[in-house]
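> run fold Endonuclease I
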Amino acid sequence: MARWSPLALVVGLLAAVGLYGSTAAVAAAPLTVAQAIATQNGSSATVRGYVVGQPTATTTVIRSGYPNDYALALADSASTTSTSSMVYVQITSSFRAAWGMRSNPSLLGRQIDVTGSLSAYFSHAGLTSTTAFAFAGTTPPPTTTAPPSNCLAYYAAACGKSGAALKSALNGIIRSQTRLTYAQVWEALKVTDQDPDNSANVILLYSGTSRSKTANGGDQNDWNREHVWPQSHGPFDTNTQPGTDLHHLRPEDVTVNAVRGNLDFDNGGNQTHPEAPGNVFDADSWEPRDAVKGDVARMLFYMAVRYESGDQLNLELNNSTSNGSQPYMGKLSVLKQWNLQDPPDAFEQRRNQVIFDSYQRNRNPFIDNYRWADSIWP
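> ok
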């Protein structure tokens, strides 16, 4: 009969009553890519591999010139070129900004862990419906939550900085952008501000109403291009980059836009507009509805960081509501409150991504990390 040591007896008894973990309770190690390819049964698993490019077809994986952020390919070696030795990873929407190849080309060659369903993608061995991404050997983020956005590869030069150094670093990143004409802005807004419940309409910023995309123009009940940072606060016109920058242009009803005019932003007011419920204003300021207070703040933060003296126009925020034609906007202390009160939502995040993917190729950093505002303007 086998002889048991005292320690083995204790461990066995504790395991029997569930007080000592057995080997079955230890978390399974990530699958290799080869194992993932051999186990395409729809089960959930974490796969570890090296990023070797972006799949664009069943037998095609590219290593540069990435068209979007929707997929990546993993292999057990960073030098793998045979697509038969790769697993194709579907990048679900909440992870595209942080893990897509177009936004983060520096991922090429990095070893990462991805959790998802072992199912075909592009008619090829794949990992779909992904729920977690992490660099190999680190703790994955919570399910369906992307890694901290201030650590996106896009912001690599800014991560870890604060104050004036952060502002300068962000300016250096976001100033690289594609310029639009003022005519192109019309068509862009029909995409960036599309009503998620009606693809034929856009959502108006202050009014919050849904209006036909084709009802754009200058007549009553049309919508036009609202400059959240007014052209007169600079001043600048629509032939220069600030005047056509999508990150501060939004659709708005013609008459509401005219009433807002070039007012600064602040709490309070004793007048309302029948087509913009929830907004109040007075002689020197405009308070938008609660649902877009943070949106307004982050658009102004963007403009103050994007346009510095090197652009022959230095836009800044201050605590005044009487800025006239000076290149200033207020009220900074209130904008900071609104930023925290109304964090970025799905509509705002989608808008930021569409501007990056399809139009300007730059991002609003305060949508990706809204707490950067308190670091720059303490």
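The longest strand covers residues 44-57.
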